[in-house]
Amino acid sequence: MYEKIQETASWLKQRMTTSPETAIVLGTGLGQLASEITDTYEFQYNEIPNMPVSTVEGHSGKLIFGKLGGKDIMAMQGRFHFYEGYSMKEVTFPVRVMYELGIKTLFVSNAAGGMNPEFKIGDLMIINDHINFFPAHPLNGKNFPTGPRFPDMHETYDHELIALADKIAKEKNIKVVHGVYVGVQGPTFETPAEYRMYHILGGDAVGMSTVPEVIVAHHCGIKTFGISIITDLGGFDNPVEVSHEEVQIAANAAQPVMTEIMREMIRRS
């Protein structure tokens, strides 16, 4: 796998005309942030050697290079999920490639179900920690030379980046909340009992991505910032049914403010 990562990174380096140190993973319904990127050039996943291909509605499938907030960046428009049948090594393959390309900071976004009774649909939740409920771990197997065998996880989400996001949100009068993201396998949405259990265990929002990517980024020494759009609510007295289409609609509605925070964070960081 390490040889494939280096092969993919080499293929991209030969074709890149910029030197980004910042990367963004654009999650469900958040792919429109790509329209904010200027001076772009891009590669479809299916033309990049060894790259998996996204299969989920709402997820495009390409790497975009260009400028955002005046900085060179790269963005994944369309991520890979464990529930699609990929191994954890495949799910996190792009993050490994990012490291080889010189990425120092990773911004990850997702749509998530809110379990905190104070949350509302459309809230932006800055992730300050996570709980990993995936049945496989992305660091299982032979250790990659990019980090220690047993990485410390005390500051998985960079405190300075969180403080910067809070400062920008306050300046722009944008409401943000903080919380713990619970990463689960999916693809089913949670039952009311599962929502309640995850909240009792310390979770504020739950989703089917992000955690594997963040673990691998942290293992590589890449600073990480994560943000969730609360697209549905669960675990309360009145159960609410949810569909993937409704999640996308809620994510798209919250997109402008999330984009504003991300753009300004990249400009200042």
What's the quick description here?
The chain is α/β, with parallel strands linked by helices and 269 residues long. The chain has seven helices and nine strands.
What is the number of beta strands? 9
| Strand order across the largest sheet | 5-8-7-6-9
CATH architecture: 3-Layer(aba) Sandwich
Percentage of β-strand residues: 15-25%
> For the record, what is the CATH homologous superfamily label?
Nucleoside phosphorylase domain
Q: Level of helix content?
A: 25-40%
Number of domains: 1
The outline comes out as globular
Write down the secondary-structure element order.
HEEEEHHEEHEHEHEH
Largest sheet: 5 strands, mixed, barrel
Radius of gyration: 17 Å
- CATH third-tier fold name: Rossmann fold
Low-confidence stretches: none
What's the end-to-end separation, in Å? 32 Å
Tally of helical runs: 7
CATH hierarchy, class: Alpha Beta
Mean pLDDT: 88
Structural class by sheet pairing and helices:
alpha/beta
How does this structure look, described?
By secondary structure, this protein is an alpha/beta fold. The protein has a single domain (about 1-269), classed as 3-Layer(aba) Sandwich (Rossmann fold). About 30% of the residues lie in helices and about 25% in strands. The chain has helices spanning about 1-15, 90, 95-100, 160-170, 190-200, 210-220, 245-269, and strands spanning about 20-25, 40-45, 60-70, 70-75, 105-115, 125-130, 175-185, 205, 225-235. The chain has a 5-stranded mixed β-barrel with strand order 5-8-7-6-9, surrounded by 4 helices. β6, α4 and β7 (about 175-185) form a beta-alpha-beta unit. It is globular and about 50 Å long. The two termini are about 30 Å apart. The model has no long low-confidence stretch (mean pLDDT about 90). It holds the Pfam family PNP_UDP_1. One of its GO terms (cellular component) is cytoplasm. GO terms for molecular function: purine-nucleoside phosphorylase activity. This is Purine nucleoside phosphorylase.
